[in-house]
Specification:
With about 300 residues, this protein is an all-alpha fold. The protein has one domain: MetI-like (MetI-like fold, Orthogonal Bundle). Helix content is about 75%, strand content about 0%. The protein is built from 13 helices and two strands. The protein has a two-stranded antiparallel ribbon. It is globular and about 70 Å long. The termini are far apart. The model has no long low-confidence stretch (mean pLDDT about 90). It is a multi-pass membrane protein. Belongs to the binding-protein-dependent transport system permease family. Its main location: membrane. Keywords: Cell membrane, Membrane, Transmembrane, Transmembrane helix, Transport.
Length: about 300
């Protein structure tokens, strides 16, 4: 009888250990990511939100000012920061409107062309994806070398055919053309790969059925390809829009935010407020970041809702 009891206790102990291990295993996998998430995302986000209600320049104690930083940004028209914020927001919105359509349409048609597997399709896939492996500094330096008004290779060849130099990096609207061109060249490869993956998930039977029904290539694209890519395109659109709203390095390195303040985008303005000058204003910069984060959150939710809406 005692042996049976001992066996039952041993069996219960083994089962308890197994259950304990089963509960611990997911925590061990999640744990490292959770620690990094708390340290490098959750805590900085919370702390930045706290800073946004204070006047602080990194060197003195925080002074609580309530909603004053937000007022100076959003509704206090007498504040200089109000004008600068909306000017930077307009510049950011201009970049988004000019770049995002190209960053969706160009990769889409490149992906469709490569998905058809023409001769050398692997080479072209690698060719279009290669620029995305470069750092943004490298990309901007390449394009500055190409587009410099006086020493750029593009203006050199324009001069050879009798055309005047174009101020690619110093005059509107050419500065926007330059920023959009370098961004497209740099990032279309990533979007192309994502769309290619989506194209691979569309069953060939759908195209065969469309051909039997007499659909030409254009109708197949409208009624088979685009509906099949609804999920991937929604993801690409949201991520591309977020990335475009967070643009900074291209205007900072290529144009310095100029001419004037025409290309001083929001992230660049936040950096200047928070980290440059003799009196950096970390509280105001944090408030600007919170406002930008709320804008991005709203835009992302609206885009994703519209793109995934059932017909």
């Amino acid at each position: 009888m005692s042996d049976v009891i001992k066996n039952n206790q041993t069996s219960h102990s083994i089962k308890s250990k197994k259950k304990w291990k089963e509960k611990l295993t997911p925590i061990l996998f999640i744990g490292p990511h959770l620690i990094f998430f708390i340290i490098f995302l959750a805590y900085p986000t919370f702390y930045g939100f706290v800073i946004s209600f204070n006047n602080w320049n990194f060197f003195t104690d925080m002074e609580f000012v309530g909603l004053q930083n937000y007022a100076n940004i959003l509704w206090n028209t007498d504040s200089l920061y109000f004008d600068y914020f909306w000017s930077a927001f307009q510049a950011t919105l201009t970049f988004v409107v000019l770049s995002v359509p190209f960053l969706i349409i160009v990769p889409l048609f490149l992906a469709i062309g490569i998905h058809a597997r023409p001769f050398g399709h692997n080479f072209f896939r690698a060719l279009f994806y290669a620029p995305s492996l470069l750092s943004v500094v490298t990309v901007v330096l390449i394009w500055i070398w190409l587009l410099d008004t006086n020493a750029g290779i593009v203006n050199y060849y324009l001069g050879m055919v009798g055309l005047d130099n174009i101020p690619w990096l110093t005059r509107v609207p050419w500065v926007w053309v330059s920023l959009v061109l370098m961004t497209i060249w740099w990032t279309i490869g990533t979007n192309m790969i994502l769309i290619l993956a989506g194209l691979g998930d569309i069953p060939d039977q759908l195209y065969e059925a469309a051909k039997i029904d007499g659909a030409n290539k254009f109708k197949q694209f409208i009624h088979v390809t685009l509906p099949g890519l609804k999920g991937p395109l929604a993801f690409v659109l949201v991520m591309t829009t977020l990335a475009s709203f967070n643009v900074m390095a291209q205007p900072q390195l290529a144009t310095g935010g100029g001419p004037g303040y025409d290309t001083r985008v929001l992230i660049l303005y936040i950096y200047e407020v928070g980290f440059t000058g003799g009196n950096p204003r970390a509280g105001l910069a944090a408030a600007l970041s919170v406002v930008l984060g709320m804008i991005l959150l709203c835009i992302s939710l609206i885009q994703f809702k519209l793109m995934t809406k059932e017909k």
